[in-house]
Amino acid sequence: MDLRINPSSGVPIYLxxxxxxxxxxxxxxxxxxxxxxxxxxxxxxxxxxxxTVAKAYRELEYEGFIEVRHGSGAFVTEPKTSSAKIxxxxxxxxxxxxxxxxxxxxxxxxxxxxxxxxxxxxxxQDNATPTRxxx
Amino acid sequence: MxxxxxxxxxxxxxxSGKPALRSLDLTVPSGAIYGFLGxxxxxxxxxxKLLLGMIRPDAGEFSLFGERVKSEASAIAARRRLAxxxxxxxxxxxxxxxxxxxxxRAFFPAWRRxxxxxxxxxxxxxxxxxxxxxxxGMRTQLMLLLAMARGAELLMMDExxxxxxxxxxxxxxxxxxxxxxxxxxxxxxxxxxxxxxEQICDRVCIIDEGLVVIDGVLDDLKSQYRRIVLVxxxxxxxxxxxxxxxxxxxRRGRTASLLAHVDVDRVVDRARELKPISVxxxxxxxxxxxLDHVRGE
Lengths: 135, 297
Fold this sequence. Notes:
CATH topology of the largest domain in chain B: Rossmann fold
Largest interface: A-B, 29 and 36 residues
Largest sheet of chain B: 6 strands, mixed
Helix content of chain B: 25-40%
Helix content of chain A: 55-70%
Radius of gyration of chain B: 22 Å
Oligomer: heterodimer
CATH architecture of the largest domain in chain A: Orthogonal Bundle
Order of helices and strands of chain A: HHHEEHH
Distance between the termini of chain A: 27 Å
Shape of chain B: elongated
Distance between the termini of chain B: 39 Å
Mean pLDDT of chain B: 91
Low-confidence stretches of chain B: none
Largest sheet of chain A: 2 strands, antiparallel
Number of helices of chain B: 10
Number of domains of chain A: 2
Structural class of chain A: mainly alpha
Strand content of chain A: 5-15%
């Protein structure tokens, strides 16, 4: 599993780490039942704060994505297989292509479309990320 | 685990009538890596000096490790449990690396030989080299080794990585990450290097002109703050300045840029009522937070 974070982006680091771990599962780099590296190992490897890694693991556990067994580590529970994900991505691609063809028909250029897409995406993420009343 | 390691209330200090710190309240919990940020002259070094007992506050009080520090004796007791890495990295010039380690070890009965060896290996420090011949990075690493091997519960540093190359900086950050993962050490350091603070700190405090302007868990701050960029078909309306919940407003031509962190959705809704032709909401980086808060209005 190759984890990379960008501390200077405005996105909270624990969210980046959660996404990276989910992505690693999606592409099959780490699979159901397998153990995630320890908090200490991730913190050392990425030279990042262990409390932040712990928060990402707690949130993943809360989402049911991993299971933390005390004394033995964190294990992936997510049942989704990577092929199911690929099918989802293909399906989403079709939907987006359709939307973009419509946008082009309205007279928008490629870069204008990209801005619309990014605006909508950030709006979606803004609505999705606020805290759930827990820390 | 939730012990408070550094706790200050209303700490104030003036130098010949000029205030360096104005009622500073700081809370540093155990196990944190706490980044203390501010421009030159914002009061960072004054704070460190106060906490180390090198100077006395004009007003206010503070505790270290849960013990109120008010006398010379209590300051000395606290200093036994903390280590300080100063910006100028003072070491005895007539000793080699090995001699410096053996000399320091003799003062600390709880010296951790395992950590000494570990950081020697990690930093690849040359034992036979005289201290004045070390690079700036190696001096910093040696001071960190001395601080960590003596088992300090609190590591305080003044600009630890200023002037170091990226590879050495990364080594040092990695050592700090590892130290914090042990759960027994709290790290408090002042810095100008926003990128490294974003990378390693879980909590940050920004001070400006002796006052705290931002304080909190870094990821929480990033979740809360948003930059709202509005473009108008002409000059941005004056009412923007009166929108409730706007921390900071900047206008340039047709564009207005707002910073908000409370009820951002409502701020956006209110801004939309002013009929902008474009509204964008962006996440905010630590650098933007810093610049918006220390540049003033």
